[in-house]
Amino acid sequence: MTEVKVSEERELKLGAGPRFHLPELPGDRLAPRFLTNIYFDTDDHRLAIAGVTLRRRLERRRACWQLKLPRGRARLELELPDAPARDRAGARAEGPPARMVDLVTAYARGAALLPVSTLRTRREGWVVRDARGPVAEVVLDSVQVLEGRRTIRRFREVEIELTGGDEAVLRDLEQTLRAAGASDTDGRPKLLRALDIEPLPPPAPPPSPASAADHLRAMIETQLGLLVAHDPGTRLGDDPEPLHQMRVAVRRLRALLREAREVFDPEWVAPLRDELEWLGDELGAVRDLDVLRQHLSDEIATLDPVDARGGTRLIRVLEAERNRLRGRLCAGLRSERYLRLLASLEDAARSPRTTDAEASLEAIAADAFRRLRRAVRRLGDAPSDEALHGVRIKAKRSRYAAEVAEVVVGKPVERFIDKAKALQDVLGEHQDAVVAQQTIRELARRARGGASALVAGRLMERQVIRRAEILRQFPKRWRKLKKRGLKTWR
């Protein structure tokens, strides 16, 4: 299977009007290139509006597929050679490769990906260098928007893409280009300019006096956006962070729907929470092993070389299990069940079914905090791991409920949220240690052999010590949260 080439691009776009001429820059001038890009999208431009571009690029009779995905302030670029797919009859199958179609599933939702625009570009520029080597690439693109063989629009833009430099390099080059006549631009990708459409704006929070249902609807919309944004990175699997953030979005959605259940129609909200639980479990199974793998790798690195070899066998068994669970997760993300869940969440973000749209968000958050206090009171002097995990879940729900109420209550809630997060982090570390101890025991059983068993025993002892050290932090964190909560939710 051909490997996907993955890179992260950090670029700045500027307008290049008729008076702009690309200045001479320190480095090497690039030979002019002529590129033809055929962009694919749904017929209602779902990818483009979300800031995603999928295109087939042709240059000198060579072709490749490129997919660009938003990733924070940068964009992730994936490239595959154009190896023509064939249908069962052996004929060439038109359209993007299946691997790239899979990565945009959460955006396309099963809709066909069709050619929506063709752009022909003449590119010239510079590889900019300093004493360290290449730091950026500056290119001037003269773009023709084609309709058949006819040019229907033209525009020029200049781009600075960092290749080794930092933000200071970016700003210095920007000043140089502006001095040569470059101007502001709206920063839209070429496809959006060609189609003359705007990107999807971030969800706007409703005003403070809005109903509870409106505030909750906006929170659902925000979390759905985050879930979808981190879906491609989760499928790609090159970085554990998108999977973590996708799981957080699912957890927040479940917590919101649970804590505000008095607002929603029970028959409507229960199946939605059940499906979110399914997705959260699939994500969580892989995420937990990611966390454990990092922790065990750090611990094993402190062992002597002989013991470390036994630890390496444990890591191999862990990675095999993670690969199995990741395969199950990816199958779930390709299922109709997942697409139905996304559609249900989209409906919830537009018009959730409510029974008490005017319920008090402050009361909802106060109730969540009271449930947390009751759970802590029941812990006793020697709390079980299960009871502490239950408190952690209630602390998380209390925090998420407070985030919903923040727009109404204001600044005092910020301090409550900070204290809740601190308690949640401590209890999260405790639960990580509990899971680690259980998983290490199972890994040792699968790895077999005296060396692995010896290392596993030492690692489990460390988890016992880790749990005790973490628990010593709990009373202080709880006192701070309780004090803040009693002030906030009077």
User: What is CATH's topology name of the largest domain?
Assistant: CHAD domain
N→C terminal distance: 61 Å
How many beta-strand elements?
Answer: 9
Under CATH, the homologous superfamily of the largest domain reads: CHAD domain
Low-confidence segments, ≥5 residues, pLDDT <50? none
What number is the mean pLDDT?
Answer: 91
Global Rg: 27 Å
CATH class of the largest domain: Mainly Alpha
CATH architecture term of the largest domain:
Alpha solenoid
Instruction: Specify the structural class.
Output: alpha+beta
Order of helices and strands: EEEHEEEHHEEEHHHHHHHHHHHH
- Strand content bin: 15-25%
Largest sheet: 9 strands, antiparallel
Share of helix, binned = 55-70%
Please give the order of strands in the largest beta sheet.
1-6-5-4-3-7-8-9-2
Shape designation = globular
Count structural domains.
Answer: 2
Supply the number of helical segments.
15
List keywords for this structure.
490 residues; alpha+beta; Hypothetical Protein Pfu-838710-001; 15 helices
Notes on the structure:
The protein is of the alpha+beta class and 490 residues long. It folds into two domains: 5-195, Hypothetical Protein Pfu-838710-001, CATH 2.40.320.10; 213-488, CHAD domain. 56% of the residues lie in helices and 19% in strands. It has 15 helices and nine strands. The chain has a nine-stranded antiparallel beta sheet with strand order 1-6-5-4-3-7-8-9-2. Strand 5 and strand 6 (74-81) form a beta hairpin. Helix 6 (212-236) packs antiparallel against helix 10 and helix 11 runs antiparallel to helix 12 (385-409). The chain is globular, with a radius of gyration of 27 Å. The model has no long low-confidence stretch (mean pLDDT 91).
